Amino acid sequence: MLLVITLLSFALMYMAPGGPTAFMGNNPSVSAEDIIRINKNFGLDRPWYVQYVKWVQRILFHLDLGYSYTTGRPVHLMILERIPATLELMGSSLGLALLLGLSIGIVSAVFRYSIFDHLATFFSFIGISIPIFWSGILAIVIFSAHLGWFPSAGRLSVSMPYSVLDHLKHLILPASILALLYMSEWSRYMRSCMLETLSQEYIQTARAKGLSESKVILKHALRNASTPILTMITLHLPTLFTGAIITETIFAWPGLGRLFYEGVLLHDYTSLMGILVISSFLIIFFNLLADILYVVIDPRVKYAKAET
Amino acid sequence: MKSINKWLQFCLLFLLIFPMGCGREQERATSEAGESHSPAGRPQSTARYGGTLVIGLAQEPRILLEFLVGMDAVSFIGNMIFSKFVRYDNHLNLVPDLLTEIPTVENGGISADYLTYTYHLRRNAVWHDGRPVTSQDVQFTFDVLMHPDVNTETREGLDVIEEMLAPDPHTIVVKLKHIHVDLVGDLFFEECILPKHLLEGKIGKEFSRLPFQTRPVGSGPFILKEWVHGSHIRLVANRDFYKGRPYLDEIVVKFIPNMNTMLVQLETGEIDGFQQAEISHLQRLKSMPGTVLHRVPKLAFEHIDFNTDHPWLSDNRVRMAIALGIDRKQIIDKLFAGVYKPAYSDMPPMSSYHNPEVKKILRYDPEKAAGLLEEAGWHLEEGATYRTRNGKRLQFEISTTKEKPERELTQLLLIEQMKKLGIELKIKNYFSTVLFASQEEGGIIKTGKFDWVMFSWYAAPDPSSLESIYSEHFIPPDGQNYSRFRNKNITELLKLGTMHVAFGERKKIYDEVAEIIAREVPMVALYWRVNIDPFRDSLQNYKPSPSMSGSSWDCNEWWLSDND
Fold this sequence. Notes:
The complex is a heterodimer of chains A (308) and B (564). Chain A is mainly alpha-helical. Helix content of chain A is 72%, strand content 0%. The radius of gyration of chain A is 24 Å and the shape is globular. The relative contact order of chain A is 0.14. Chain B is α+β, with helices and mostly antiparallel strands and 564 residues long. Chain B has a domain at 298-529: Roll (Dipeptide-binding Protein, domain 3). The termini of chain B are far apart. Chains A and B meet through helix 2, helix 5, helix 7, helix 8 and helix 10 of A and helix 1, strand 9, helix 6, helix 13 and strand 17 of B.
């Protein structure tokens, strides 16, 4: 599976016109011979499938993602140094979204058509429809430029010693903006799952048995409603390690999303492939994890052995 | 219910606490108290030492060696760390950097036959690790640049060198294979001098992977202290710098890819300034208290190359008509708030090779343009919008890079202006990596798959580089004559220009070249870029150079008036 994904991405990348040295064409003093010489040094003059086989060999036998064409640094190092910042941003925004999104979804479902439900619906549609490149800038203008509550970009202040407070202040804006998007989606999703479960007959039965409303909701309804939610969340987990391109660009956050974006602009094949192979691996892994978790949470799901 | 209650409580708590937890106080760049002793032989008696300057940069350099990646961000920081032989100042004059003086025939630096150059290095120059900079380092750098496994982007000015000698630790003698008119401006202008003692024995295939590329040791005014990739670079003053200790203690360069964010960073004092503000931000910047807008004329000019292989564009009259139908003033006023300057030729107005006559030939004149099109057989039928000839409509495609919105806006105005002439113009844009890709990679320009192509050239201060753009020997794949312009006269003149050295003679040659290009119109120049660099008014002595030396060519002279 991974092989197919990497082969496809590799082929597509190489077949697209342009390459790591294409930008030099805009410099009048760089001659065609210069570019040919540099391509040769990089091994870019060989056919793409030869380069692909070399690339796969390096990964399989040496666990080596190669060196970046643009920075000359080992790709695994470039990815590793971005992981803390990426985890920090994605972790806090996914956590925040989870906490708020699911709570809002549950309350909305339980108190369907209440004022809270209407407000939640209204704001989550706003949250879903506003693109981050706009809401991010708006947040910066309001909270940094006008109110002066938070710094507008970066992960740390560059002109003062490290402090946790400073670190948190830098995190709040990008994490909240990103969380807003996830939260809006998840609260809608949670609401509909919960509503569906609440209308099931076994809920009626549970109520008829005389169980308290809190027990009905938390023990019976929530558990059954959480299976699809769990899938959705597990499938979002790979983004913990891949980052968010637009948010990171707007808030100058040194995460993996930006590394990927810059790699695309510069045709830095090796760093792109490095990020792609890791994220494809994570996506496959978390899909598998979601499947396993079904069984744990929902006793109705069982993976039967093939009948002989 | 218990756990859900806890959840909700926590959510509420979270919402309430966080905005309060973050105070309103503004952080400002803190700085050490400046030292008070005044430097010897410095013109500014009021200049103060100390302080940290925080600069925002939209693009993060990939490495810091300019000869491997020619890019503004690399030059900007590279110039702070490394020494060069020469730099261009803010008036486009060559000034010595690591040299004690610019070699000329008069001072004996250049031999009478223009084939031997003698360079004298400063005796007090030291590497950031304390070792002296000697002619051995220069010789070593030359070997590195010429090594087949080293990805030197261009060897212009290096490939003419027969041999480089180091008769003593502070003298370099360069012998040329043949005359190269711009050797002084070319040699070690973009190429930084490398430390032999740190790199010896590491030159080969592995060179492009050396940690030195991102953790370099130079001999320039500032020392690289840290590079947090994706975030910032921190540089500290080199107290042993040969031109005297830089005034600033520290320069921090922050990478902020979004220009809106950049603006807010300046507003909140998180950065002290940045380069190349967007024109659309001009009004807001003007209203920002305590901010000075430095206008920096650049050597970059936007232009259109016509594909003269195109059957209709091979007609000189059609090309001239298009050129006369372009209203530069409208483009500059509407899109660039009147900041950019109209361009009529390849030579920047501040250059001594600029020919003012050219403007008269290419002045906006739609009536004359219409007349030329009629003459070429392109007529406007009753009630028609576009001209036709033998039933075929006069239409072209204009291509440019997709990344810059200002280019697409320029295209829209051009479409309107051409419509007035009866020419239909259609947009067909590409990503720059596709547009500029090599012949083998199917690059649009190199393979000639365009009618008009619009992009910017960086005009070299010396006109000798025009040869690779207009000589018929430089038609792709062998050069950058993208308009496929074939003109014997130009080809000869440009060749001649690279041989004669006396200024008067060369000036005559290039004046003629400019006039021929204006009359034959293989390309139309549109505007010279003017950068707006907003900085806090406390930054003194910021004198950006229009050339590749950029704004950091004399960063050792920058100082802050409020650093105490």
